[in-house]
Each structure stands twice: as C-alpha cells, then as structure tokens.
Amino acid sequence: MRALIYSARTPAEEIERLGDLVDGAEIDAVVITGTFSGDPRTGRLSRRNVPFVSFGRPWGGEDVYRSTHAWVDVDGAAGTRAATRHALATAGPRVGFVGWPPDTGTGDDRERGWRRAMAEAGATGPRFEMIDGLGAARTTMAAVFADAGALRDIDALVCVSDALAVGTHLAAADAGRRELPVIGFDNTPIAEAMGISSVEQSPELVARAVLDLLMGPTGHAVTAHDSVLPPQHVLVEPRLIVRE
Q1: Residue 244: predicted pLDDT
Q2: Does any domain span residue 3?
Q3: Are 31 and 84 in the same domain?
Q4: 70 phi and psi, to 5 degrees?
Q5: 221-242 pLDDT, tens per residue?
Q6: pLDDT the model gives residue 68
Q7: Which end of the chain is less crowded, N or C, counting CB atoms within 10 A of the terminal residue's CB?
Q8: 194 and 223, same structural domain?
Q9: Same domain, yes or no: 186 and 206
C-alpha cells in the first residue's frame, strides 16, 4: 500500500480535494476522520462509489449501526465509565464531570459513560461545561474552586479531554487541593508528564480495524462494498491508564 496524507481546513475543501484525487485516478480508497452530525463527506463519497472507511461514527442518526458506510470508532462511553468507576472506588461517591457543550457527538458519548457509572453506583456529582482548552478549564474551574464548600463536595473529576483535565488539575492545585483526583481522556504526552490518569484510545487498534475493513481478509487490495450485506462497523474499547 501507498498511503497519502492530506489535510483540509473545511469539509468543503476536503470534498474538493478528494474529488480531484478520484478524477485523476490517484487513489483507490479513502479514510476520513473527525466525523460529525450531517457530515457531507460520507454522502459525497458514497454517491461517487468511492470505497472508504471513516474513523468516527455518523453522529446524529437514530441508529448509527444502520449507517450506509463502514466506520471505526472509539467507545468513549466505555472509557469514561471505566474512569468513573475507578474514581468511585478509590476517591468517593461525589465524582463530577468536566465536559464540552452538548451536541458535540464525541463529548455526549463520553458524558454518557460518566452518567451510566454514576447511576449504577447510585451516586451523584456536579457537571461543569466549557469549551475545550487548558486555559478555559483553568479559569472556569478556578471560579468553582473559589467556593471552599463546593471544592470539599467533590471527591474526583472525570474530564472529557486531557486539555480540560490539565486545566482542572492546575486550578485544583492553585486552590490548595493538588491531591484531587482528575482523570482525562486521550492519554496525551502532557497528561503523562503531569502524572494525570487518562483514557488511552489505542490508536493502533483503530488503524488496524480501519485497514481490515478497507482491505479485506487478504490485505492486498481494496474490498468492494457488498450491496447485499450491510457495511461493517467496529467500536474499539479504550483502556484507562492510572497514574497515582
């Protein structure tokens, strides 16, 4: 295989670039990433009969497993569920969630895992919402932690991303609770460097699943989509990396 990596600033620009590559017979198949509700790329590729697999499920549908194209995604809910269960077992019942605004697909999925674990444990905890970014998290959570009573009422925090986890950890340290357990998502180098527990997406498993769907059992040629059988979908379960 020869893999070509392209980037685009907008979906429209990506569609145009893909169209040029297909018209020029430069590619045999496509892997797209960063899917979102109403993603126009999947429909355009399907209409042109271009074999493709998306890293990311088709958000916004009633039943993503009935989608018309093959996809691989990380089970974000399973990751935050494991993180929340760990926090409940090691820190206490008041586990909060630091997340993105609703209707972000990935963020909603990760929040679902926290809610499920809390419901299973019969526990409750606060939810905090902000845009992604270390600075936003540090500023927002500093305001929360300024209330000493609110800070005492939180045993641990599960975050939708490592950026929010790092900002939350710094805000907790500024407020005198450096020991407050904070768990992130993505297991980025900064989380590792700061000793913050995080959910690892296992990108090597995602890549393997994408290529398995795209190249079929032989791994030597792009597999044509079977018009009779439904497209395949793979949900990769992430793993929690605990750092004490």
Answers
A1: 79
A2: no
A3: no
A4: -75, 140
A5: 887 665 545 678 999 999 999 9
A6: 78
A7: C
A8: no
A9: no
